Amino acid sequence: MTENSSFMSGLPELAILRLLQDQEMYGYEIVQAIALRTGAVVSPGEGVIYPLLQGLEKSGALKSRRKTVSGRSRVYYSLTAKGAKRLGLLSGRWNDLNGAVTALMAGGALGVR
Amino acid sequence: MGFADLRERLLRGGVAPRHVRRYLRELNEHLDDLTAQQHQAGYDGEDAAMRARARLGGDDELAAAMLAQKRFRSWTARAPWAVFLFLPPIAAIAIGFLFIGSTVLIGKYFGFLGRHASLPPHWFQLLATDLVAACNLTAVPLSAILFVAIAGRQRLKLIWPLAATLVLLLLFIHSDVDFALHGKSRLMVGAAPLFARDGLRMLAGNWPSSVAQYVLTLLPLLWLWRRRLAKV
């Protein structure tokens, strides 16, 4: 139960790791991508993503570099090997939970007495 | 529309200044992107800025997100007693070693401080004595400045820089130089607690420089105290 609760609160972390699996991105890009892909269902105050990004970087799941593109200097984040491992773990847990909820919502006879 | 309040809240909450600086920089950059997006959407001036700021999140939300990450807390917030009681004497002794070390290097370079060296020339004795005097006058005050600055920057209670200053004053960190024949010359830096007999003897023997050292050590704390009073 505790693990599932912490997992649910780790949803933004899962989203960030998944997005950065494909390419390096900066904070604004990540927020826009999350909103786009989730149909804005997951859309916290946009600035709160930065403590999360910095926390993931500190734990070794992400690395960052400052890059100037079109005259704008921004911090770009990318996934590390440790981050990829963490993504695999979180994805597995998410799939388990997703399967459990789908089965639960499908309803039907319980088959137990 | 800036982040001055958020910055104060994070620093008072114990977040390390470097993490605060980075957070605010990234927020500013994000805000620029949001504002540009609002301009593209047809909003202008104050309207665009306000809408962008609303999307970024309120100060409460932004502060809570950072404060929740305990790993960003500074050492002064986690263990202020360790930082302000143990590190100031170490810093003062380290600064002292810089002075003494440079004197020793010069002495060794010219062969004045070898095992069988004769009495160093007058100019070196004078230089060494002046460097030691400068060390006595500045090492402890510089350490006090450092720890008062840390406390000021991280918005800590005045009790911590006060503790650091008192430790420095009580330990009476002092350097000394003595020249003698046949490699018996010595340069030293050390601490002689004021409550010990040696400490009181050294204090009495060098009272003009000791008084100056004490006054200079107290000044940073008084400056911080006045600054805090002015802000109230």
Q: What would your notes on this structure say?
A:
- The complex is a heterodimer of chains A (113) and B (232).
- Chain A has 113 residues and is α+β, with helices and mostly antiparallel strands.
- Chain A has a single domain (2-100), classed as Winged helix-like DNA-binding domain superfamily/Winged helix DNA-binding domain (Arc Repressor Mutant, subunit A, Orthogonal Bundle), CATH 1.10.10.10.
- Chain A has helices at 2-9, 11-22, 27-37, 49-58, 81-106; strands at residues 25-26, 62-69, 72-79.
- In chain A, α2 packs across α5.
- The longest helix of chain A has 26 residues, at 81-106.
- The model of chain A is unreliable at 1-7 (pLDDT under 50).
- By secondary structure, chain B is mainly alpha-helical.
- Chain B has 2 domains: 4-72, no CATH class; 75-231, no CATH class.
- Chain B is 72% helix and 5% strand.
- Chain B has helices spanning 4-12, 17-40, 45-56, 59-67, 75-78, 80-109, 122-153, 159-171, 197-205, 207-231, and strands at residues 173-178, 186-191.
- A two-stranded antiparallel sheet of chain B has the order 1-2.
- Chain B is elongated and about 85 Å long.
- The model of chain B has no long low-confidence stretch (mean pLDDT 86).
- Classes of the chains: A alpha+beta (113), B mainly alpha (232).
- The A-B interface holds A 26-28, 31, 44-48, 50-52, 54-55, 58-59, 72-75 and B 19, 22-23, 26-27, 29-30, 32-34, 55-58, 61-62, 65-66, 68-69, 71-72.
